[in-house]
Amino acid sequence: MSYAKTEVAQIVAISNNRCIGKDGKMPWHLSEDLQRFKRLTTDDTDAYADSGIKGIVIMGRKTFESIGKPLPNRVNFIVTTQMDYAEKQGLTDVENVHVVHNLDDALTHGANIAHGLKFDTLWVIGGEQVCKTAMMFTDRIELTEVDTEIADGDAFFPKLPADFTEVEASDWQTDADSGLQYRFVTYERKSEE
Prior knowledge:
Layout: E1 7-15, E2 19-21, H1 31-41, E3 55-60, H2 61-67, E4 74-79, H3 85-88, E5 97-100, H4 103-117, E6 121-124, H5 128-134, E7 140-146, E8 155-156, E9 164-169, E10 173-174, E11 181-189
Parallel strand pairs: 1-6, 1-7, 3-4, 3-6, 4-5
Antiparallel strand pairs: 2-8, 7-11, 9-11, 10-11
C-alpha cells in the first residue's frame, strides 16, 4: 500500500476486547511497551542528527490531549475537525507540530517531510477514528496485546482486515508493576501479486 512511497505503520496497545482507551487515557502503564513505542517511532540514523528529528507521528486530537504535549524528536501531526484548535491550544508557532483537519493532509505533508529527512515510515499512533481511517493506507501494524478485558473502555482498535498476516510475535511477558501479561505482535499487509 504505502502513501506516496512512504510506509504507513500503526502502533497501538490493545486489550483482549480491542480497547485502546478509557476516560481519555491508556487503560494501563507498561514500561516495556512505552520503551518499544519510543524505539520504533524514532529512527536512530544520524543522517539528519542536526535537525533533532527522528520520526513522524500522526494522531487524533484526543490522543494528543491524553499525551499532553508534542512528542519530542518527532514531527507531530494532530488531526482534528476543530478549525481553531491550533490557536486555542497555542500550537500555531510550535516547532514540529502541525494541526491538520483530515488524515489525507497529515499523510501528504508527513510523506513530504519523510522524503526530505530520508525516513521510511509514518507512524499512526491513535486514537480510534484515526486508526480506523488510516487502515486503508496501512502497511504494517505493531500491536502490544495486553491480556486483560476493559469492560468500560471508550476507544477501540478496529478489527484487522483479512489481508494482514502475523509476521512476528514475542513471547508473553509479565509487567512487574501491574502484573499484566502482554506480548508484541507485528502484522504486515500481504502484497498483491
